[in-house]
């Protein structure tokens, strides 16, 4: 999935090149893991958290997997709002426009629409 959306960035990082400053992901501190996945380097490097929590994987914006991750978190939290859902997703993944994606997906939730309508 990342290779489809971030192939040039993955190649540049694997060859120890710098990312183009015009890219949206330039400001993120990205690293390639041993499987070739783009992960964020965060300040939790020396914590006892597992690798997925310390270094979340980068998700593309308009991908079905990103939508499913947000929807799964929303359902897991019993149809919580955007902020709680996004916090749950960001434990493992990072989406560049996460809030925007979460809002659009949660606005389509049938159960939430039904509850808020009544």
Automatic annotation (TrEMBL):
Pfam families listed in its UniProt record: Integrase_H2C2
Protein name per Swiss-Prot or TrEMBL: Integrase catalytic domain-containing protein
Gene3D superfamilies: 1.10.340.70
Source organism per UniProt: Trichonephila inaurata madagascariensis
Residues in Integrase zinc-binding domain copies: 68-115
């Amino acid at each position: 999935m990342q290779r489809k959306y971030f192939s040039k960035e993955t190649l540049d990082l694997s060859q120890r090149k710098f990312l183009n400053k015009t890219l949206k992901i330039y400001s993120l501190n990205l690293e390639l893991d041993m499987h070739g996945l783009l992960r964020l380097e965060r300040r939790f490097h020396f914590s006892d958290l597992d690798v997925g929590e310390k270094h979340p994987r980068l998700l593309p914006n308009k991908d079905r997997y990103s939508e499913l991750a947000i929807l799964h978190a929303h359902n897991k939290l019993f149809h919580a709002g955007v902020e709680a859902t996004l916090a749950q997703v960001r434990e493992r993944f990072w989406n560049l426009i996460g809030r925007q994606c979460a809002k659009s997906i949660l606005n389509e939730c049938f159960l939430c629409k039904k509850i808020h309508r009544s």
